[in-house]
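Protocol step 4 of 6: structure prediction from sequence.
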Amino acid sequence: MALQVGAENKKQVYLLAGLVAILIAVGGRELYTTLAGPSTPSARPPVQTTPAARGSSYAARLRAGQGKEAQKLENTGLDPTLHLDKLAQSESVDYSGTGRNIFSAESAPPIELAAAPARPEVQPDQPIATTPPMPQAPPIDLKYFGYTQSPDKTLEAFFVHGDDIFLAHPGEIVDHRYKVNAIKPNSVEITDLGYNNTQTLPLSPN
């Protein structure tokens, strides 16, 4: 009887040891898989964009890079008359500095001109290479007829384009095409965005 009890205890011990070994093996494999897995997330697939979406984003970036639109004004109650007395008063200011006066051509140092190279002789039977003339941009059809000064001392220019009147700061776009670069009392610098051409428009008396 004692022998049978000892044999049953040994079977239970062996069975328990086998279960513990299986649990240890499974737990160790799960722990190794967790620790040895990839540390970085998998790459997301590229997002496919349609041509319409790409076109709209390009147009948005173009509008953001050009600047905001100028203010369009009503042409009632505006006085486009050029006040010559105030213009003459601003032009009569004498330069009193010690350096070079950048507004006077007389104070510029003389420019030394290099000797022109001799023209090569052209043989009678040798064709003369000519380059076709570059297409010229059309003149900007804006009229600069006055300016005002904002509270922060920035000049604002008045423009006429057809029957429309615009008030623009430097950097703004007039009539969706003309960018105002610089404003001076007697002239403005305008860039035609369609031709990438910059021109200077004088102050118009009327």
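Step 5 (inspection) to follow. The radius of gyration is 41 Å.
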